[in-house]
Amino acid sequence: MEKQIVVSGIRATGELHIGNYFGAMRNFVTLQDEFKCYFFIADWHSLTTEEDAEALKVHILPIVKDYLAVGLDPQKCTLFAQSSVPEIAELALLLSMVQPKTELEGLPTWKEKEASQKEAGKIVSAGLFFYPVLMAADILIQKATIIPVGKDQLPHLEFTRDVARRFNNRYGFTFPACDALEGRAIKVPGLDGTEKMGKTEGNAIDLVETPEGVAQKLSVAVTDTNRKLRQDPGNPYICNIFALHELLSTPEMVEQIKTDCQTAAIGCVECKKMLGNNINKFLAPLQERRQAISDDYARQILSDGGKKARITARQTLNEVRDKMGLPDLKGE
Ligand code: ADP
Q1: What confidence score (pLDDT) does residue 266 get?
Q2: What is the pLDDT of residues 98-136, one digit of tens each?
Q3: Whole-angstrom distance between the N-terminal and C-terminal Cα of the chain?
Q4: Index of the ligand 1 atom closest to the CA of residue 153
Q5: Order of strands across the sheet with 5-11?
Q6: What is the residue with the minimal CA distance to atom 14 of ligand 1?
């Protein structure tokens, strides 16, 4: 039986953080043993919000290193830069022909992104508006069926399924339905008390964070805001620090902290200290592996992966062009 195909990407808009790890990368590592996996650096998607060319450039290789350091093996999966597969852009253009504009306008993620760009005094580009179609092309070009992404991306997956369905209805079955990794989509909250840790929100613990950096960031992190005094009992269920404990601490410690917080047996300072220790324990081996990876090696991996991803991408694009009545480019 043919292996199922997995696709997922991460934008190069900053250092990767523990939200990216628990929301996406952790799953990549187990999937590479079982499925045909494509993991990419979404450099085109980065351009929807990143205006600084130098900043984009400097973020690409560190992400390859992070991919490798968390345990991705280029012998088992394909790692590449999105822009090294131009077939994706052509597919996005072709998919846009079956995509009603109004549906893009109705996406809740669009409204949020539009508002945050405006708030930052930045341009709201057509590229940003088009982002979900490009994401559909990332997935459909490889005919992927399993998409390991965080909860924030689920509306885009639903959108991708609709695009595929619409294309199949008009031109004949071409794209299989894709789905998130069952039961695994989570959202890691930010240190500022918001729902989502992100690269550009200044609310993240990066994978390259030093123990001093971890301690500093945690010291100002928001907890249960109703807990004003040390002797007040806290509510762990509305505390982002507790949510991080659930990801990084042992089940026994999580239970203990829950009780100790609810009975005010520990204060937030202590609770954060324990979390900090566990974050450092988690990050240390990852950072050691990352340090041993050279820029040249990372560059080579990207270049080899790009060539590999293009082979299958070309096949899909040829099929799509043919179905849509465009001239045959197979021999060129
Ligand atoms: P960011 O929002 O940090 O720029 P990306 O858009 O590059 O992250 O997302 C890369 C992957 O990481 C996606 O699969 C996304 O769902 C996941 N991800 C990002 N932030 C989080 C988070 N806070 N919790 C869970 N998953 C996340």
Answers
A1: 94
A2: 999 999 999 988 998 899 899 999 999 999 999 999 999
A3: 31
A4: 16
A5: 77-81, 36-42, 5-11, 146-147, 179-180
A6: 149
| CA 226 vs CA 171, 183, 232, 263: distances in Å | 57, 31, 9, 14
Task: Give residue 143's region: left, alpha or beta (phi > 0; psi -120 to 50).
Answer: left
Instruction: Pull the structure tokens for residue 233.
Output: 């009992």
Task: Please say if 143 is a catalytic residue.
Answer: no
CA 16 to ligand 1: nearest atom? 3
**8-state DSSP, 165:** H
Whether 196 is catalytic:
yes
Question: What's the confidence (pLDDT) of residue 331?
Answer: 62
For all residues of the chain together, what is the average pLDDT?
94
Q: Which among 252, 251, 253, 222 has a CA at the least distance from the CA of 239? A: 222
pLDDT tens by residue, 232-280 = 889 999 999 999 999 999 999 999 999 999 999 999 999 999 999 999 9
Instruction: Look up tokens 């041993």; give the residue.
Output: 292
Q: How far apart are CA 113 and CA 160, in angstroms?
A: 18
- CA-nearest residue for atom 15, ligand 1, is 150
111 is catalytic: no
Q: Rounded to an integer, what distance in angstroms lies between the CA atom of residue 159 and that of residue 171?
A: 18
CA 325/CA 327 separation, integer angstroms: 7
CA–CA gap between residue 292 and residue 300 (Å, rounded): 15
Nearest ligand 1 atom to alpha carbon 150: 16
185 token code pair? 């989509």
